Every structure is written in structure tokens, then in C-alpha cells.
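ok new one. same drill as before - C-alpha cells go in, u give me an amino acid for every spot. 447 of them this time. try not to just spam alanines like last time pls lmao
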């Protein structure tokens, strides 16, 4: 069979289809693994192609026997349009990814089959069924044994950014109320054999790697062994981590730095302890943040923080307090997002039951729109407050201060410019997403 796998174009993000094949996209595109991973699980004897619509256009007239489309929530409407167009031409379509897993019945209206959950173990059977013309409506993929996950077929990707992604573990035991990772990948942390991770890294020519794991601090013993094994490869890498461990375990930090770690992305989420408790972010203690950041940076690694506004315990005062606090930290960059109740998450079902979901236009589920009714502020106050924090944190003065600090941490090594670059990329994104866009699009008119 001729099989086409599609990643729909991004309308929102640091890089989008509007940056197609530009130098900016080369530098800042976020590598993803889903379709190249699925391609690696395809039985032999089939012709397979991957199209990332952010870099290539889809030719709907080219003959295909099967089209597979992956979809995040904000990409769902575009994924459905692509699926509908192919099906109108008689092509069989399969939908999978986070959003079809959360909303399989909705996705099935636009597809001949829907993959729910992880695709690796069910994809070969789906291909056999498609060959026989007997596709099932749903394929429920189990949480796979990580030792059986093949290396992604990266050679099928036509666009290769500066960084490349790899995955050592799947799953997250934290189960934060707003996060879809646990819904999709489960609470049990599943680890790949370290020798497989090392071998895959050896095959990746890129010098800068992004670990696509929920967190490399969830099993410190495993990660320490991983660091020891990858140290000789002389790669530079970035990973997600939990601040409770990073701020306490200097032996872990030293091993990470010696293995090539440049920076950690940390989901601080909020400086409000009540909001952290509400979100079930049990691993975070807001009062320890500043000290923990200093511990990490003293070990020669950067910190990029993630913050979310709009929890039920947030009031309009949270914005000024957050800006004052975060600009006082030695942090390298930050994301400031509006709480988004993604389908499938506990917070989505809670808000839906309470009648607080303002729109189910999935294109608005970008973390830059207000799609629900906050408890202690208006939707406009939530939007305006988030913009105020972004404007203050990414002022010229603050950016210059952080960028110089980042270069000092890495002693002006060539890779040191990655963290200052993140500031430029984030400001460009926020300018386009929050300040150049029409605010009327950010809040549903009936809110």
C-alpha cells in the first residue's frame, strides 16, 4: 500500500507554517517523534511518506491507499478538514494522537478508523486490516513496553531543525489536573533500556538534543545511569525536570551537567501555593523556587520556567505578584500560559460539568485564549493580566539582563547562545500571539 502520514499545520506556536523552511524555523522548530515512530512500526512491503504541513504542502490529488493524521487539540479542525478531503476522494483515513484519544467519537466522524492511545503495538494490525479492506472503527493502543519501541524513521522527515528529539521514558506519576500527559501516556513511568537510548543518540547527527520525556527527574537512579552512559557522546541537551529534585540533589545536577545538559525546563506553574495544591502539582513548593533556581545555575545549567494563570485560587493580584517575583529570579526564560482545560483531562470534565467551558472551538485551545470562565476574575482580566506579565518579563531591559546572565553561566561557549535565543523566540511568539492579534478573538463573545 501507499501510506501517507500527516502532521497538520500549526497556526499558533514559536514556529508555524508561516515560517516554512526559514532560518528561524531551522533554529527554533520543536522536533517531534510521533509520525516517524509510527512509520518505524509499519510492516515491510509498503511505500510510506511523511508530510509535515508546516514545511510541505499536501497534494490531495496524489493517489494514496491510506492516510494517517496525528492531531493535538488545537490542530483537530485542520486535521478533520484534511481527513474529509481525502475521504471525499475515496481514500481511507486514520486519526490518532492526543485529541482523537480524548475525543474518539468526535474523531470517528471524520475517519475510517481512530487510534486511541499509543500506536506502536496496534499499527501493524491496522495496516493488515486496511490491506484486507476490513478496518475496525477503533484501535485501542496499550502502554507499550519501551524496550520494544523501534528507532524513529527520521530519514522520512523532509525538514530537519537544528535540534533533534529523543525519548527515554514515557508516563508521569504526578497526574496534574490540567495536564494531558498522564491521560495519554499513563501514570507508570516506563523506561527504555539505556543501551537503546545510547545507540539511538549515536545515530543522530545533531549536536543539540531535546529529551521529549515528561521529566528526567522522576527516576533519579535511572537518569543518573543514563547520564553516565551518554557522557562520552559529547551531545548538548535540554530536558524537563521537577524543581523539587533539581533544587536538592547536587550530585544529580553535576552528573547531568557533565553529560551535556544545557538547561532544564521546569513547570513551576504558579507562585501561589493554593493554586499548586488545586492543580495537584504535589511536587512543587513555591517557597523553595528561588533557592532551587540558584542551585541549578550554580552547577552551570540554565532554567526555563513555565507558568499558568487562571487557577480557581488565582485573583487579579496574581499577575503583579508573579511579575515582581519572577523578574527577581536568575531565570533564563519563561513561558506564561493561560490555563487551558484540554479534553480528556480532569479539569476539562470538572469545568464542563460546572458549565464553565465557554467554547469548544478547538482552534482556541492554544494556551493564549480564554476558553473557560475563571472563578475569581473575568476572562478579560485573565487575558489582560497575562499580557501584562509577558510585557514586563520580556521588556528590553529584562531580556538583556537575562541573556547576559545566560552567557555567563555557560562561559560564552557556542551552545550558550541557545538560551538567549529562546528569549528572542518567545518574545516573537508572544508579540504575534498576544499583541498583534485581535483580543476579541481571545475571549468568546458570549463570555
Amino acid at each position: 500500500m501507499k501510506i501517507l502520514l500527516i502532521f497538520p499545520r500549526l497556526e499558533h506556536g514559536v514556529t508555524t507554517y508561516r515560517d516554512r523552511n526559514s532560518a528561524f524555523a531551522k533554529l527554533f522548530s520543536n522536533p517531534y517523534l510521533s509520525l516517524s515512530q509510527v512509520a518505524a512500526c509499519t510492516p515491510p512491503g509498503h511505500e510510506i511518506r511523511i508530510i509535515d504541513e508546516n514545511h510541505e504542502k499536501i497534494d490531495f490529488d496524489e493517489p494514496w491507499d491510506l492516510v494517517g493524521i496525528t492531531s493535538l487539540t488545537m490542530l483537530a479542525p485542520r486535521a478533520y478538514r484534511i481527513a474529509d478531503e481525502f475521504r471525499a476522494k475515496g481514500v481511507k483515513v486514520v486519526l490518532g494522537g492526543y485529541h482523537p484519544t480524548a475525543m474518539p467519537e468526535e474523531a470517528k466522524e471524520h475517519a475510517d478508523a481512530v487510534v486511541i492511545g499509543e500506536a506502536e503495538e496496534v499499527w501493524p494490525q491496522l495496516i493488515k486490516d486496511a490491506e484486507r479492506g476490513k478496518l475496525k472503527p477503533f484501535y485501542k493502543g496499550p502502554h507499550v513496553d519501551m524496550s520494544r519501541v523501534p528507532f524513529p524513521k527520521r530519514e522520512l522527515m523532509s525538514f530537519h531543525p537544528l535540534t533533534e528529539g529523543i525519548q527515554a521514558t514515557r508516563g508521569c506519576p504526578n497526574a496534574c489536573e490540567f495536564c494531558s500527559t498522564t491521560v495519554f501516556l499513563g501514570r507508570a513511568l516506563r523506561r527504555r533500556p539505556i543501551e537503546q537510548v545510547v545507540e539511538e543518540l549515536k545515530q543522530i547527527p545533531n549536536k543539540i538534543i531535546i529529551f521529549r520525556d515528561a521529566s528526567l527527574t522522576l527516576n533519579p537512579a535511572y537518569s543518573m545511569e543514563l547520564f553516565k552512559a551518554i557522557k562520552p557522546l559529547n551531545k548538548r541537551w535540554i530536558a524537563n525536570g521537577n524543581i523539587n529534585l533539581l533544587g536538592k540533589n547536587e550530585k544529580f545536577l553535576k552528573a547531568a551537567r557533565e553529560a551535556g545538559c544545557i538547561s532544564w525546563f521546569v513547570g513551576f506553574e504558579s507562585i501561589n501555593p493554593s493554586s499548586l495544591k488545586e492543580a495537584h502539582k504535589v511536587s512543587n513548593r513555591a517557597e523553595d523556587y528561588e533557592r532551587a533556581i540558584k542551585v541549578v545555575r550554580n552547577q552551570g545549567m540554565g532554567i526555563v520556567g513555565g507558568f499558568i494563570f487562571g487557577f480557581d485560587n488565582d485573583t487579579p493580584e496574581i499577575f503583579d505578584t508573579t511579575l515582581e517575583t519572577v523578574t527577581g529570579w536568575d531565570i533564563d526564560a519563561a513561558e506564561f500560559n493561560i490555563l487551558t482545560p484540554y479534553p480528556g483531562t480532569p479539569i476539562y470534565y470538572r469545568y464542563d460539568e460546572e458549565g464553565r467551558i465557554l467554547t469548544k472551538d478547538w482552534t482556541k485551545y492554544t494556551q493564549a485564549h480564554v476558553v473557560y470562565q475563571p472563578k475569581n476574575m473575568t476572562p478579560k482580566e485573565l487575558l489582560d493580566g497575562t499580557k501584562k506579565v509577558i510585557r514586563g518579563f520580556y521588556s528590553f531591559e529584562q531580556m538583556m539582563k537575562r541573556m547576559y546572565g545566560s552567557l555567563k553561566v555557560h562561559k560564552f561557549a557556542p551552545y550558550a547562545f541557545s538560551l538567549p535565543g529562546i528569549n528572542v523566540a518567545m518574545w516573537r511568539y508572544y508579540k504575534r500571539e498576544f499583541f498583534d492579534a485581535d483580543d476579541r478573538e481571545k475571549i468568546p463573545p458570549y463570555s
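Residues 2-146 form a domain with the Rossmann fold fold (CATH 3.40.50.280). and btw Residues 271 and 322 are 7 Å apart (CA to CA).
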